[in-house]
Amino acid sequence: MDIGNHPFFVWEKPENFGNTRFVGCFFLIFEAKRSGSETLCKAGVTVSKEVIETILDRILLTPVKLYALMVSQRPNHTLIEVELDHLEHPYGSVSLLECEQVSRKLNEELEQISPDLNYTLKVSSAGAERKLVIPEDLDRFRGIPVRLVYKLEGSGDKEGIFKILDRKEDRIFLEPFSKRKTKGFKKKEVILELKDILKGNLYVSI
């Protein structure tokens, strides 16, 4: 489960199809929900998920990119959730200003192509404990603590917190992570095969 503290901006279109209003910027624990719904529908009006992705491709500027797009169909209402990634930030976090800019631009585009669509739009950063994209993120987040779930022969699935030291082809070199610093103690290096890593996420040490 990928849960992180991060801000998001919300635009809401009321059911009477009046003007879209800016609800506000919130900061809370948010759990992204993936939906199999590919189409937004309201009174015969449809906007495909692919169309939204095309708009985002046009309005997003490097180093900000799309991390995830979720569409949830509800009775008489549609929830559109956009999560953003920042390629130049150590943890991939996107600023409040960048979230606001993307939120406003996407809202304007949706108003133009589907003015009768009843929806709520949320734009947020992917979160400090975002799910890792494997194997790409094993290179991207070197030196940063990650929580990995992996297979260990004869022991079933295991879980641990590590710092990524290096990746050489399909071998991942890790160092066990601990908040406690012990002088003169050298941590034992752990080597995992890429095929044995089942999933992972960034780990924030507080």
Describe the structure.
This protein is α+β, with helices and mostly antiparallel strands. 17% of the residues lie in helices and 46% in strands. The strands form three sheets. A five-stranded mixed beta sheet has the order 2-1-7-6-5, covered by helices on one side. A five-stranded antiparallel beta sheet has the order 11-10-9-8-12, with no helix packed on it. It is elongated. Residues 1-5 and 14-44 have low confidence and may be disordered.
Brief characterization of the structure:
This protein is of the alpha+beta class and 206 residues long. It has 3 helices and 12 strands.
Total number of beta strands: 12
What is the N-to-C order of secondary-structure elements (H for helix, E for strand)? EEEEHEEHEHEEEEE
Amount of beta strand: over 45%
Q: Kindly name the structural category.
A: alpha+beta
The largest sheet is: 5 strands, mixed
Task: Quote the average pLDDT.
Answer: 79
Could you tell me how far the N terminus lies from the C terminus, measured between alpha carbons in angstroms?
A: 19 Å
Number of helices: 3
Quaternary structure annotation: single chain
Radius of gyration: 20 Å
Overall shape: elongated
Helical percentage: 10-25%
Low-pLDDT residue spans: 1-5, 14-44
